[in-house]
Design a protein that fits this description.
three-stranded antiparallel β-sheet, 4 helices, DUF952 domain-containing protein, DUF952, 6 strands, 132 residues
């Protein structure tokens, strides 16, 4: 597997990402329980949106330069305990750095709004920003 240029953190719109970014963002309940920060590659984002943000109208997407977090990433198979099997998506990047993700690690943040569309339509418009 080749290393990605970026990894991504999806955050529900119910947990707004402050601007400017603080040194450390609050962890999600899932990240707290898991003991690491759940990330996705660009290719994994469609499945993550479908399985965890299917009913959301908006989502924050944090783009993280992989080289900035590489030393703390473990590539792991999803346990499928939360959303079921995620076949074909491969290993996921999990960030084990004591729960720190903030201004030093995050390169940029966008908000994707569905506005009645499905996530596939939103993703088709995000191709320039989303680096595969």
């Amino acid at each position: 597997m080749s290393e990605p240029t970026y990894v991504y953190k999806l955050v529900p719109s119910s947990s707004p990402v402050p601007s400017p970014l603080p040194e450390a963002l609050p962890l999600s309940e899932l990240d707290n329980v898991s003991g690491f920060i759940h990330l996705s590659t660009a290719l994994q984002i469609p499945g993550t949106l479908k399985n965890f943000f299917g009913e959301s109208d908006a989502v924050y997407v944090l783009r993280i330069k992989y080289a900035m977090v590489e030393k703390d990433i473990k590539w792991e198979d999803p346990k499928a305990e939360v959303c079921g099997e995620r076949g074909g998506e491969g290993m996921f990047p999990h960030l084990y750095n004591g729960g720190r993700l903030g201004s030093a690690e995050v390169e940029s943040v966008v908000v994707w709004h569905r506005k009645g569309a499905n996530w596939d339509e939103v993703l088709s418009k995000a191709k320039l920003w989303l680096v595969y």
